[in-house]
C-alpha cells in the first residue's frame, strides 16, 4: 500500500507541474488587473495652470526656464562676491595675527630647547634654524636664564639679542 500511495503522489505532482507549465507557455503574455483603478489613478487631463497650482499646493516651486536662468545667474554672481569678500577677510585676518609668548629660560636649558619652545609658540618657523644661527654666532654657551617676552613679528636678531648676553 505504501508503493501505491507514493505513485499517486508522484503522478499528482507531475500533472500539476504540466498544467502550470502549459498555462505559463500558452497563457496571456501580459497580466491584466481586474480591479478598478482608483480615482487618483484615472486619466486626467490638466491644463498648465492647474498643474502648476496642484504642484504648488504640494510644496513644489515652479519656474519658467527664463526665471530659472536669472536665478542661476544671480546665485553665481552672489557666490563670486562672497568668495572675493572671504579672500579679503582672510588676507586681513592673516596680516593681523600676532603671537605673543613669555618664555622662561632656566639653568640647564640649551639653545635647542629654546628654539623648540619658540617654534611651538609660533614665534619662529624652525627651532633648528634658530639653533644653527646661535651656533654660527658662537653664543650657545652664553644663554641667559630669566623670563623673556616675544612677539611673532620679531626678527631672529632681536630674539637672539634678548636671550643671550
TrEMBL record:
Region (Disordered): 71-91
Compositionally biased intervals (Basic and acidic residues): 79-91
Protein name: Endolytic transglycosylase MltG
